[in-house]
Every structure is written in C-alpha cells, then in structure tokens.
Amino acid sequence: MTKLEAQLKAIQADSIPSVANDGKNWQLLCDKHSDFYARVLSNKPDIKPINHLLGLLTKLHIEETSSVTSYAESASAMRQLIDEKVGPEHSHKFDELGSQQLSLVTHLWVYLQGYLRMDFSLANDHAFNTAELLSPMLQSPTHELRAQFLESYYLGVERSPIQEKSESKVMALIKRLFG
C-alpha cells in the first residue's frame, strides 16, 4: 500500500459511499499520484501528512476542473448524440473518465475539508461549481450532485477527531452578561 492510499485510509476516506463504490477510479487516482505525494512528504517532513494530502487534493481538484472545463461542451454534445443514436438505456456504457475523476476528487477534497473542520462555505461553493460543471455530462441535476458532495463534507465533519472550537472566554462572558 502506498503512502497516499494509507493516508486516505487513515482518515477513512475509502469508506465514503461514493468513493467506496468507485474502486476503479480510486485505484487509478492512488496509482497516478502516489509518487508525487511520497516526494512531497520527503521534501517537507516537518509538515503533517494530512496537510500535504489537503494540498494534493486541492491541486488535483484545480487540474481536473480545468481539464473537464476544456471539453465539457463537446462531452455534453457527445452524450446527447449517444442518447439519440444508441438510446438512453445504453448511454451509461459510455462513461467519460475525466468527469468521473473530478467527481471522485471532489468527494475526497470536500470530505477532507470537513474532516479538518474547515469553513463550510468553501466546500459548499466548490461543491456547487463542480456540480454545475458535471451536471450535463452526468445527466444529473446540479442540486443532487451538490447534495452528494456535501454529504461527503458532513461525513468528514462527523468523523473528524478535531474538537469544535469553543467560544472564547470573552464571548462567553458577554453572552452571560447580555444574553
């Protein structure tokens, strides 16, 4: 098992429902990016591995989004043509790898943001933008895709070992005095 796969499993990312059901793309992602992750770990050993994972997933999300954006229109047109010529009952056989990878990376990335208890608004914005991009290609409504991505975020929050930040003593005093 590579260091990347071990780190993802350590935070239980392999059991996110949408990730667990996509073993082929999981393995492709781990195989493709394991060497890079290992190099980053060895180059900067003073930084926590989970922070390197956040950096890697951020990088991958940017790259996958850019890649899918560059051909989104033609992929949607191709999907429509397949539906018309072959039939919608067979169109699921023609999966487009880039959109699948972007979906997987997005689930992992927003999950990790939840796991690290990062600001929800960032995860929400990216979940919406990614859902909007993928909606025509995956033939799924934007709001459904966004909800699926945010399920991963909340699962990360639920599994997070980081305690919620308690309010400061000053805020607690102010609330007691005026609340």
**C-alpha end-to-end distance:** 54 Å
> Mean of the pLDDT scores?
87
Specify the helix fraction band: over 70%
Main sheet attributes: strand count, strand direction, barrel closure: none
Number of contiguous helices = 9
Q: What are the secondary-structure elements, in order, as H or E?
A: HHHHHHHHH
Any idea what the radius of gyration is? Answer: 19 Å
Please tell me the total number of domains: 1
Give the low-pLDDT segments: none
Q: Determine the strand fraction and express it as a percent band.
A: under 5%
Overall number of strands? 0
Q: What is the 3D form? A: globular
Oligomer: single chain
Structural class: mainly alpha
What does this structure look like?
There is one protein chain. Helix content is 78%, strand content 0%. By secondary structure, it is mainly alpha-helical. It has one domain. The model has no long low-confidence stretch (mean pLDDT 87).
Give short descriptive properties of this protein:
179 residues, mainly alpha, 9 helices
Give the topology, please:
Elements: H1 3-10, H2 17-20, H3 23-43, H4 49-85, H5 88-91, H6 97-115, H7 120-138, H8 142-159, H9 169-178
Care to give the gist of this entry?
The protein is mainly α and 179 residues long. It has 9 helices and no strands.
